[in-house]
Write a structure and sequence with these properties.
By secondary structure, the chain is mainly β. About 10% of the residues are buried.
Length: about 525
């Protein structure tokens, strides 16, 4: 819902939603809960002709519980205050302040006397001044800065065993990232335009906390702890500085254009993912004295063209290549979860991502829509891992196809279809096993990393939109409304959320073979119908 608070002075916007799968699934699934919700709110206020204020917030959470005691959830809360100021007809600014928190948690156990609970959180505060200066008709200069303070809480965790509570939480980590930048968008002539700029970023890893020093002895194996000390509150433990140039060019050729770009970027915050877990846990960690920032060089070149009468069609093809240094990976047998010495289990290597993207869009006519296809690879090479060969990352998707079509059946009725196909993501799995006292010990004989893939994901969604009558008793209605009937996952595809392995349950007679199984875990594996009513007044 959106509308005015005070005419020509202030307005508001509120949007919210909640899924209903858990409500309709209750008769069929005991105790399990699956839902998400989010809420967005925004207020605009015109102070005067030269000053505007914007205040917005977002609240969202996903919850997946097997029963009242067990499950996992994640969510974000953000708030933004922005002040837009016009100095004159050539210079204006935006001063923004952001606060955000992201948390991820899980819990399991039989009851309150025997359970485990874990929660991880990243809290950030960001201040960002940004300026636009129109130097002349052919040059627009953007300049400004940014400062972000991070507070990482890697683990608030407790273990309850037979009623005894043990706190195994880890201490917080803090960091400060800041940057200054300047860019110029320049129109050289009717055919050629260029954009070029430079960004300087700095990063400080801050105390308090324990500071550990490690050294690598055997590539791919856990690093050896050399020394440790305690850092004071606010002490700069490690600093990094990077120049980040970027440039892009566009050249018009008739109704088409050629675009090319080059960018150097630095990433000081790292995502560590364990692909072998049945419910993958993503752990965010800052750059430290042991973990260097990731540096990326990306190149792109593409051809874009509009054609047909009135530019009815759009088509493009673009190739890209990216090199990455200091990309974080974990050692064989790593202990990533609630580990005070996690940095000893993290190593780095080089990465690359390359591919080609195709897009085609039809803008007009009874039948309109678009097709998008990407063929790409994302790979890593780390000394001591995967026999020192390149291997796919968790985010590698060889094929990514999306097709959307809309057909106007009449002036009031239209139908649409959306189809998605994505290659299965890679994961690591045991290739061999030992059996000791009827217990299976998994083992990777080939020492491969991400050598298998979950099955591909694909889905078809259909919907029909009915525009309600615009006239009533010969008079035009002020309100505009419509009904939307849709079906998500029409053919009930059970797309895999993860793959996990387990041995057979129950007593096993000594000497008998122990069976193991691979399980494909799917969350939504059935068609989901929906009815929506949209209206404007």
């Amino acid at each position: 819902m959106q509308g005015p608070i005070k005419k020509n002075k202030a307005s508001f916007l509120v949007a919210g939603r909640r899924s209903y799968v858990d409500i309709f699934a209750k008769p069929f699934i005991d105790d399990a809960t699956l839902y998400f919700y989010d809420l967005t709110a925004k207020v605009n206020y015109n102070l005067n002709d030269h000053n505007k204020l914007f205040l917005s917030g977002y609240f969202g959470r996903d919850v997946f519980k097997f029963d009242e005691e067990q499950g996992f959830d994640w969510g974000s809360i953000t708030g933004t205050l922005r002040w837009n100021h016009i100095f004159n007809n050539r210079l204006f600014s935006n001063f923004s302040f952001f606060v955000s928190t992201y948390d991820y948690g899980l819990a399991f156990g039989e009851n309150d006397r025997d359970k485990f609970e874990w929660d991880s959180r990243v809290l950030t505060y960001t201040f960002k001044p940004a300026f636009n200066y129109f130097l002349n008709a052919n040059n627009e200069v953007l300049f400004g800065g940014e400062a972000t303070y991070y507070n990482f809480n890697p683990a608030e965790a407790t273990v309850v065993s037979d009623g005894d509570i043990t706190d195994i939480s880890l201490t917080d980590r803090r960091a400060l990232e800041s940057a200054l930048y300047i860019d110029n968008t320049q129109t050289v002539n009717d055919k050629l335009s260029i954009k070029y700029g430079l960004r300087f970023s700095s990063y400080q890893y801050l105390g308090p906390g324990e500071v550990y020093e490690y050294e690598e002895t055997v590539p791919g194996e856990r690093k050896t702890l050399v020394s440790s000390r305690t850092a004071d509150d606010g002490e700069v433990i490690e600093s990094y500085y990077n120049w980040e140039p970027r440039a892009s060019v566009k050249y018009q050729i008739g109704k088409g254009s050629v675009k090319g770009s080059f960018t150097r970027t630095s990433q000081y915050i790292h995502l560590v993912s364990n692909t072998a877990a049945s419910t993958p846990i993503d752990i965010w960690t800052p750059s430290t004295n042991n973990i260097k920032p990731q540096i990326g060089l990306q190149y792109a070149l593409g051809y874009f063209r509009n054609f047909g009468r009135g530019n009815d069609y759009e088509a493009s093809v673009e190739a890209y290549y990216r090199d990455t240094d200091n990309q974080v990976e974990y050692v064989k047998g790593a202990d990533l979860f609630i580990n005070e010495y996690q940095e000893g289990d993290l190593i780095s290597g080089i990465g690359r991502a390359y591919g080609v993207e195709f897009n085609f869009k039809k803008n007009v006519g009874k039948l309109n829509g678009w097709i998008s296809y990407t063929l790409g690879r994302t790979e890593l090479k780390v000394n001591g891992i995967n026999r020192n060969d390149w291997y796919p990352t968790r985010f590698d998707q060889t094929h990514n196809l999306k097709v959307f079509g809309n057909y106007d059946i009449s002036k009031r009725v239209s139908a649409s279809a959306n189809f998605t196909f994505i290659s299965g993501t890679p994961f690591s799995a045991p290739t061999s096993r030992f059996v000791i006292q009827n217990m299976v010990i998994p083992y990777d004989y080939y020492e491969s990393r991400n050598g298998l893939r979950v099955p591909a994901s694909h889905r078809l969604d259909l919907s029909v939109t009915l525009q309600m009558k615009r006239e009533k008793k010969g008079k035009k209605r002020k309100n505009k409304d419509e009904l939307v009937f849709s079906v998500y996952n029409v053919y009930g595809r059970r797309n895999p959320f993860s793959i996990f392995f387990a041995q057979q349950d129950g007593y096993i007679t000594p000497g008998d073979n122990v069976s193991t199984m691979a399980y494909r875990f799917s969350i939504v594996g059935a068609p989901v119908p929906a009815i929506s009513y949209n209206f404007k007044f």
